[in-house]
TrEMBL record:
Residues 58-412 form the AMP-dependent synthetase/ligase domain. Belongs to the ATP-dependent AMP-binding enzyme family. Residues 463-537 form the AMP-binding enzyme C-terminal domain. One of its GO terms (biological process) is acetyl-CoA biosynthetic process. GO terms for cellular component: cytosol. It comes from the Bacteria. This is acetate--CoA ligase. It is an enzyme of class 6 (ligase). GO terms for molecular function: acetate-CoA ligase activity; ATP binding.
Length: 559
């Protein structure tokens, strides 16, 4: 395998927009990249206008903007229709008093209405906070409370998971059905779009760190330059493409590369509702003739493990496949190469970075096992403990030279948590460990902290531990990511029990369900193990997650 992993996969001739990216690497500038957006010509900026309305104004109103697929349901909307629906939602929000800078949350399944709600909020200058559809009450509550959201768009099912009485700032809950049915006598469209400054807030995504509650990562309207440029060069969108990103907009991949980047490049996108099922996914690619597909290693590994099913579908429409969120195994790249005749292009970025930073550009050579090379205009550094750059081949902290257009504007309400990313002058420190080879390719090693990455979803151990100790039987908890062949990692909890409780299968299951029902299914520990005591630091008594992880990994090795 060692030889195979170093093998270099050459690009497929004729498959991509650009055949030679060397020129781009030498000539690229963010200023030039922004020239295709309208604000650089008109001086008027609004991310929602750039994403949808601009195409209508440029004569592409009749182009299909989206295909929606959910079970047997099929819908199709043109750019004109998306614009009109967005305007309607914007008008409803305005009629409820939403103003520039307000935080408006969206809690909806993956439907066209979810995408349209996000755009409508941004169109009127408010800040959109998309929430993942599987969140339970506490996860919803913590996020909206943190930035004092005032309005929430949801539906009559999901509203049951919104504890409104515990969210004092939230004065209005709008049901999508009611929004759809609202009528206006006087449509005053001319002032719907709020023109904003580059640094005005646009989007807030909550993400986990290894300590504390989730952080509200705030992006400003200027981020669209990054979305647009990476959509063009990395996603390689052409007018005739059908583009499918499998992530929900509650995660940053689902908003940035599910909504903004493809639509800024006028792509026809696919929105697919419902759960993962290999047959349905292959069927969707086949039926809609998907040409560009962006997904995650866990999904590819699940498909790979289904074996022969793939043979029942014609997937020859696919010309460009991308991956993000967790390490992409070389085996998966070889599987796709053999089964689909396409390469999987890994990409690396974070909620905080606003867009791709390390990528495999379409027509460049892939080294399986590597995440690719820095995007044009981006400089990567591998730093030691003092913030000094290490020589090629050494493992260190993966950092990026500041600034770039997509870099977050702030962590909501916390300068300290924001500043922690910039501890070395001129660098953004990612929290990942990696090395870079002589050809600039970057190889991910691990996280530099206790963050858990399960199926590409970022889970903070603190949030899970806090929930666990709310259960009456749990005295203390330490939560780690346990290596897993399909999901990368799964959540594992080590706990001690309170006096009077004794370990039983039923109790552990009850504790697991408790986390699941309050936080989210993906945060609930797949395994809970009871210990007599948890390892702690001598001085501060902090639980040593690293020691728990070592214990787990050594066991896996010896079994
Ligand atoms: C963390 C960021 C915004 C992208 C989706 C996840 C891990 C991301 C890769 C990759 C190995 C990756 C890193 C990073 N990660 N991409 N290609 N290979 N690891 O965004 O939820 O903000 O998580 O995901 O550890 O720090 P996120």
């Amino acid at each position: 395998m060692a030889v195979l992993e170093r093998e270099i996969i050459a690009p497929v001739p004729g498959a991509y927009n650009l055949e030679n990216y060397d020129a781009l690497r030498h000539t690229f500038s963010w200023e030039d990249a922004a020239k295709e957006l309208s604000f650089t010509k008109t001086g008027k900026l609004n991310a929602a206008y750039e994403t949808i309305d601009r195409h209508v104004d440029e004569g592409y109103g009749n182009k299909v903007a989206l295909h929606y697929v959910n079970g047997d349901e099929r819908r199709l909307l043109t750019f004109q229709a998306v614009k009109e629906k967005t305007d309607h939602y914007a008008r409803v929000l305005k009629s409820h008093g939403v103003k520039k800078g307000d935080r408006v949350f969206v809690f909806l399944p993956k439907t066209p209405e979810c995408y349209i709600s996000i755009l409508a909020i941004i169109k009127i200058g408010a800040i959109a906070g998309p929430l993942f559809e599987a969140f339970m009450e506490d996860a919803v509550k913590d996020r909206i409370n943190d930035c004092k959201g005032t309005v929430l768009i949801t539906d009559n099912e999901m509203v049951k998971r919104v504890p409104q009485k515990d969210i004092p700032s939230l004065h209005t809950i709008l049901d999508v059905g009611e929004i759809e049915n609202t009528t206006f006598d006087d449509k005053n469209d001319c002032d719907l779009v709020e023109w904003v400054d580059l640094d005005d807030g646009m989007l807030i995504h909550y993400t986990s760190g290894s300590t504390g509650k989730p952080k509200g990562v705030l992006h400003a309207h200027r981020v669209v330059t990054h979305h647009h440029a990476s959509g063009k060069w990395v996603l390689d969108v052409k007018d005739e493409d059908v583009y499918w990103c499998t992530s929900h907009p509650g995660w940053v991949t689902g908003s940035v590369y599910g909504l903004f980047a493809p639509w800024l490049n006028r792509a026809t996108i696919v929105i697919q509702g419902g759960r993962f099922k290999a047959e349905n996914w292959y069927q969707l690619i086949h039926e809609l003739q998907v040409t560009i597909w962006y997904s995650a290693p866990t999904a590819f590994r699940m498909l790979l493990s289904q074996g022969e099913v793939i043979k029942n579908f014609d997937l020859s429409s696919l010309r460009h496949v991308l991956s993000v969120g967790e390490p992409l195994n070389p085996e998966v790249i070889y599987w796709a190469w053999k089964q689909l005749g396409v390469r999987i292009h890994d990409t690396w970025w974070m909620t905080e970075t606003g867009g791709h930073l390390i990528v495999n550009l379409p027509a460049e050579t892939i080294k399986p096992g590597s995440m690719g090379r820095p995007f044009p205009g981006i400089t990567v550094g591998i730093l030691d403990e003092d913030g000094q750059e290490l020589p090629r081949g050494s493992v260190g902290q993966l950092a990026v030279r500041t600034p770039w257009p997509g870099l977050m504007k702030e962590i909501w309400g916390s300068k300290d948590r924001f500043n922690a990313y910039f501890k070395y002058d001129g660098w953004y420190v990612s929290g990942d460990l990696a090395y870079q080879d002589e050809d600039d390719y970057v190889f991910f090693q691990s996280r530099d902290d206790d963050m858990i990455n399960s199926a590409g979803e970022r889970i903070g151990p603190f949030e899970v531990e806090s929930k666990l100790i709310e259960h009456p039987a749990v005295a203390e908890a330490g939560v780690i990511g346990k290596p897993d062949p399909i999901r990368g990692e799964v959540v594992k909890a080590f706990i001690t029990l309170r006096p009077g409780f004794s370990e039983s299968k039923e109790l552990l299951e009850e504790i697991r369900i408790f986390v699941r029902n309050n936080l989210a299914a993906h945060s609930a520990p797949r395994e809970i193990e009871v210990l007599d005591e948890l390892p702690k630091t001598v001085i501060s008594g902090k639980i040593l997650r690293r020691q728990l992880k070592e214990l787990e990994i050594n066991r896996t090795k010896s079994s």
